[in-house]
Structures are given as structure tokens and as C-alpha cells.
Input
Amino acid sequence: MLRALKPFFELIIFTYKSKEEAEAIVNEIEKDQNFFTYIIPVNYCYYMPSESAYIKDLSIFFGNRVDGEVALVTTQAYDGLL
Output
């Protein structure tokens, strides 16, 4: 699936894991295929104490990207809320 998507999309991992944990997982997935452009770890998330949840800061994607051209696939209800 990743091989089919790569020619058409910039694939980025945005995770609640630490950088080291995320890199280990991505290395296992990629197997020298280089599917992902960036790994964005937990320190790029906001912590909401009232919800005991992390929220991904999607503003980092819109520096040189057009609003509406970013798709987020997630399992967390609060992702991208801010």
C-alpha cells in the first residue's frame, strides 16, 4: 500500500511515540524503501491536562503546503483539534 501511495503523496509519520521509538518502528516498516519524508514525534504535540490527551499540532504542515491538501489518517478523536 505504501509503495502505491508514495508516487502521489508525501507520507509523514506523526506519532505520540518518542523520536527513537518512532524511528525504530519506521525502520521496521520501510526495510530500506524510504516511504516516509518525515517522522514527527510526540514533542510536536500539545498536552491537554483536562482531557489527559495529546493533540497533534497540524500548523507545522501548512508552512509551504496548501490548506485542504493535507489528509490526516488517525485513530485518535482529538488529533488536529487545535
About this structure: The longest helix spans residues 19-30. Residues 2-62 form one domain. The two ends are 30 Å apart (CA to CA). The chain is about 20% helix and 20% strand.
